[in-house]
Amino acid sequence: MGGFFGVASKQDCVFDLYFGTDYHSHLGTRRAGLAVYNEETGFDRSIHNIENSPFRSKFESEIHTMKGHLGIGCISDYDPQPLIVRSHHGIYAITTVGKINNLKKLEDKIFTHKHSHFMEMSGGAVNSTELVAALIDSKDNLIEGLQYAQNIIDGSMTVMLLTSKGIYLSRDKLGRTPIVVGKRKEGFCASFEAFAYLNLGYKDYKELGPGEIAVMTNDGCRTLVSPGNKMRICTFLWVYYGYPASRYEGVSVEQMRYHCGSNLAKRDKEKPIHIDTVAGVPDSGVAHALGYSVESGIPYSRPFIKYTPTWPRSFMPTIQSKRDLIAKMKLIPVHELIENKSLLLIDDSIVRGTQLRETTEFLYDSGAKEVHIRTACPPLLFGCKYLNFSRSNSDRELITRRVIEEFEGSDVPLETLYDYADPDNEKYDLMVEEIRKKLGFTSLRFNRLDDLLEACDIDPEKCCTYCWNGKE
Q1: Which of 33, 46, 153, 235 lies at a 20 to 30 A Cα distance from 431?
Q2: Whole-model pTM over 0.70
Q3: What is the pLDDT of residue 314?
Q4: Domain 249-467 classified CATH 3.40.50.2020?
């Protein structure tokens, strides 16, 4: 994933840029960067590895040395960015959030000009942000270039581009990721997360629509390309990736999660079981669990606590085995709330199942009598084609697909996968029961997609649900 923040101010912008970017640390774990423009000294950029240290500790010196009235910053799970590019458009800095599925095809297309090359290699692959810059530079002006990149990229790409005159904002063509703009008397800011500018004194100004391109300066934010009519915003942002204080398309993340939990409890009333307490797997499962608790009347408790002082979320190794170990080490049991209890845990989702299985074993080892699991979203059956979600690299890493292959063989037709995605189909019930047995849960129920979309409270046609039902 990744996040970004930009500032166009009548005053020096670095303080706002530093803290606004830091507020996106929950969206990326590998790289972070800042780029500013100063009329006297030009462009300045700094990039750091944040795999072992939080953003602020790596960039605290930059707040005193970087100067400028215009700036962009990013948190990234993949490529180092922002990049500073010199082209026939002049010098600019660029940062992106998204995923390019046809990257090799676009590389080859650019190489047909025979005078192109790429400098920023990430793990042997071309840096996606540099590829986007190359696509933009293939056109006569920045607006045409941004539109061209949006149209030719298979996947999703939201772009923030800093020039000496202002900051261009380009939301991906179907609005899978957001760009919101804030305003105060000194200028404007643009952000992935709406909450990131509130404590800096900005008020909500506007939210870009799908495919909209705007230019932001210290005295305004002007639309250059009008938004399209079709939207497919990522629904998983509400379920997991979004910070609780944020909102997308006017819908609060925390409130949506609360409603999800409430809907789960309503479904459980149809097949009641005895539960002593409800708990959320911290942090994203907490609001879901609170909603469940209020709707069901079952007390909410915290039978285990996440240790955060020296284990911030941003410290998460890229090797999966190490990620699982770190996730387990963060959780500290409260034995008095576990021993001889029937616990119901709500997690945001089940991807591979490794962490939740280990959490369940940890609760049994700590004296739990039963561990019932509910998830805030439906079973994940399809790896995301549109955003770089680092939790799963391929469909076969999903526990759902491994179970389905045990039932159906390795070459599963799409129509059969649709059967397993349907909560009213017996194949769905067989899959859920097999997952329950493999992971050692007393019971397992997933949220239904119709209940999830109802909790979002926006037009379902505007929501991307591909990872659950394979529908584009």
Answers
A1: 235
A2: yes
A3: 42
A4: yes
